[in-house]
Amino acid sequence: MSRRFRPTDAFVDESIRGQRYLMTCVLVEARHLTQVRRAMAALVDEGKRLHFHQELNSTRRTALELIASMPVRVTVVVCNRRHGVSEFHARDACLAEIVRELQDRSVPRLTVESRQDDRDDQRTIVQNRRPEPALTFDHRQGQSEPILWVADAVAWSFGAGNRWMPLVEHVVERAVELRP
């Protein structure tokens, strides 16, 4: 009998490809958090982080093969920016969609990769978060949370398209396109 996937934690990062703003949300069950963190951290030297934009193709392939074997599920939200839609508006739209999905699934914790100023994210989350079910959130630097590297890798791969996307499509359970 298969056990139902019940994620307790969500990790979010983004990638920008031309006029496409991609935000990925990696879902993990509490019982797998340590396993996923350790596996990702083992890919780099201590004190370093995996950042797909800067990695060699061989490192990317190794990381994506590892991610494909992990007990995670991913949602990709893509905002196609047309004339007049800023990166900030696209980010808000993607994050709002993720907050709605997390609450629909009763996922209690959200971690977003921190940027220099997280106030816009905080505002977006608070404005779109319903009172129930509870959803707490925080921002963390990518270097301090290896599961954020999974979100970065999948976002980069999904945006890169045909060559890289097939390596992660096993863990992508949902892709949403927004047109704000």
Structural summary, described in words:
The protein has a 6-stranded mixed sheet, sandwiched between helices. By secondary structure, the chain is an alpha/beta fold. A hairpin with a 2-residue loop joins β1 and β2. It has helices at residues 33-41, 57-68, 87-104, 119-128, 147-160, 165-168; strands at residues 9-17, 20-28, 72-80, 109-113, 136-140, 172-178. The chain has one domain: Ribonuclease H-like superfamily/Ribonuclease H (Nucleotidyltransferase, domain 5). It is 37% helix and 24% strand.
Any descriptors?
Nucleotidyltransferase, domain 5; 24% strand; 180 residues; six-stranded mixed β-sheet; 6 helices; globular; alpha/beta
CATH topology: Nucleotidyltransferase, domain 5
Assign the CATH superfamily: Ribonuclease H-like superfamily/Ribonuclease H
**Treating each run of at least 4 consecutive H or I residues as one helix, how many helices?**
6
CATH class: Alpha Beta
- In spatial order, strands of the major sheet run 5-4-1-2-3-6
* Average pLDDT for all residues: 94
Number of strands: 6
How many domains is the backbone divided into?
1
Provide a concise account of the structure shown.
The protein has helices spanning 33-41, 57-68, 87-104, 119-128, 147-160, 165-168, and strands at residues 9-17, 20-28, 72-80, 109-113, 136-140, 172-178.
Helices, strands, pairings?
Blueprint: E1 9-17, E2 20-28, H1 33-41, H2 57-68, E3 72-80, H3 87-104, E4 109-113, H4 119-128, E5 136-140, H5 147-160, H6 165-168, E6 172-178
Parallel strand pairs: 1-4, 3-6, 4-5
Antiparallel strand pairs: 1-2, 2-3
